[in-house]
Amino acid sequence: MATQTVTIPEPVLSRLDRIQNKTANVGVIGLGYVGLPLTLLLSEAGFKVTGFDIDQVKVAHLEAGRSYIHRIPQTEVVRAREQGFRATCDYAELSLQDAMIICVPTPLTEHREPDLSFIRMTAESIAPWLVEGQIVILESTTYPGTTEEVLVPILEKGNAKGLMARRASMDPDARTFQIAFSPEREDPGNDSVARRDIPKVIGGLDPVASEMASGVYGAIFNRTVPVSSTSVAEMTKLLENIYRCVNIAMVNELKILCLKMGIDIWEVIGAAATKPFGFHPFYPGPGLGGHCIPIDPFYLSWKAREWDFHTRFIELAGEVNEAMPEFVVQSVGAALNRQSIALRGARILVLGIAYKKDVDDLRESPSLTIIESLQKQGAEVSFNDPYFPTVGRGRHYNLNMTCAPLTNLSQYDCVLIVTDHSDYDFDAIVRESRLVVDTRNATNGIRSPKIVRC
Ligand SMILES: NC(=O)c1ccc[n+]([C@@H]2O[C@H](COP(=O)([O-])OP(=O)(O)OC[C@H]3O[C@@H](n4cnc5c(N)ncnc54)[C@H](O)[C@@H]3O)[C@@H](O)[C@H]2O)c1
What we know:
Helix content: 25-40%
Largest sheet: 9 strands, mixed
Number of domains: 2
Low-confidence stretches: none
CATH topology of the largest domain: Rossmann fold
CATH superfamily of the largest domain: NAD(P)-binding Rossmann-like Domain
CATH class of the largest domain: Alpha Beta
Distance between the termini: 46 Å
CATH architecture of the largest domain: 3-Layer(aba) Sandwich
Strand content: 5-15%
Number of helices: 13
Bound molecules: nicotinamide-adenine-dinucleotide
Mean pLDDT: 96
């Protein structure tokens, strides 16, 4: 983006000054997997950070210096508290902030359409407390247009002071608040890149907003990437996740073909990945999980309908990826059948219910679909996951199960590896089990007739 000289209006100047000195008050709204780590980074940088959440239990944990996310050590919360970090459910404190960052959920509805209710509710709660010169930044993943079409109108309508969102065309003296969108790019469980080193894309509604948002994020990220609009920033996030979703679908499809052809897809990917250009490896698995890849692409498919446009790649990738849990169930049935054991009545231990290794996140996890399907077919299913002592009821599942110990594995007709947590000793698991179905290549390098890879 071409750099331009920005005239900073008076009410913004002092806030920008505080942001640049890292003495600004920053509010983070939504203290989940995205919001809490962000809060801690901002606090470490020196900002006076207040976390806002509607979940009183989370607020109470943080106020007591406790973490509720496995990969965030309690010591980090305690340190932030010592630096002045506070958590609250009281939105009135938003009026004290120079900048506020929204990190609330953006799931799909039952009909797989964007559910913006959390963003709407948050905007309605912020609006009465808006003060001139503040900046509101949306981080929740969503379709291009959400910031301007959904967030801004609620904030403009809901504040009694007549404040408007600053747009480039406005009189510099207009009484405004600033708006930006900046997508989150976290990869939970992947510690190979330090959070600071992940470049932060920022799209301001106008150059003043870009300047303010860049000031906040520049304090915690080594590189900020300003783009020309909020829509470009929104679309950037979706492109990144659609790219993953489509490529994962492609390797999932090729895996099924390779299994039929007797070729090891993992060996193929390993060999292809030696190519120093033009190839990026993606890996097959039991199906997509988490709050991003299974959901975000469908935000765009929905929006595309407004333009009479059918996003064929997204739909096809969704179809392939959504069929993977059932493919796993069929593979378990076939593996048992080869041992003359019926799926109905078989005792099956599912290893790992988190959606990916080393995270304590169940959202959209393929394990849940696989367990429900196995149960429907009459199997007697247990699970083990070091991150979950129990599993109950969620948006898309209703299980009432307690984590089984990882002992006496020979009591199970089949041990099914769905999530390859680092804590698992796969050598021992294979040794002690009668049959192992592996959806993650976790048993790579172990030679045993008991292993079936799928
Ligand atoms: N989890 C990830 O790895 C990840 C990565 C990139 C982007 N994102 C995106 O970030 C956003 C947040 O995801 P998350 O994983 O942190 O979700 P989360 O469910 O872990 O956390 C959201 C938090 O927002 C709170 N909340 C809901 N409504 C609220 C309201 N009106 N006011 C205040 N707090 C409210 C919830 O209580 C919860 O604590 C989503 O849009 C998601 O797509 C997530």
